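Tutorial, part two.
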Amino acid sequence: MDTKRVPVTREGLERLKAELSELKDVKRPFIVAALAEARSHGDLRENSAYDAAKHDQAMNEKRIADLEALLRNAEVMDTTAKSDGFVRLGTTVVVEIDGDEERYTIVGAIEARPSQGLISNESPVGRALLGKREGDSTSVQTPRGETRYKIVRVER
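Running the prediction step on this input gives:
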């Protein structure tokens, strides 16, 4: 069985554990109660509340299983070390794009949240930035065409 290690920051690991706890300790009992309530209404064949609760239960259990698998294979990245100037997993990089500055933190795919500046090491932008250092430039093919990134600063 192939067990691929999944890179994650300590903060990302804690967020995943909190989500798992929420799903198991809060959402699961809520769904069980909703199922019991729906069952009490009689005929399950035409009971939309029961169908909805069963669907919610399936989705919740799937997410729990996914999170448990991710946590089993999680490899926490050391982000406390002083940066050697290269963009690596866990580093924050400030880039210039068409005269505007953007700040990204390179993280493992499971904790990527592009809208929050957390970009995956497996994304086109993440892959292009990895291994570069301050002053380097790189181009990335995006849906809007080629975008040029100039690395202004590498932090942490």
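The mean pLDDT is 89. In part three we will examine how such features are distributed along the chain.
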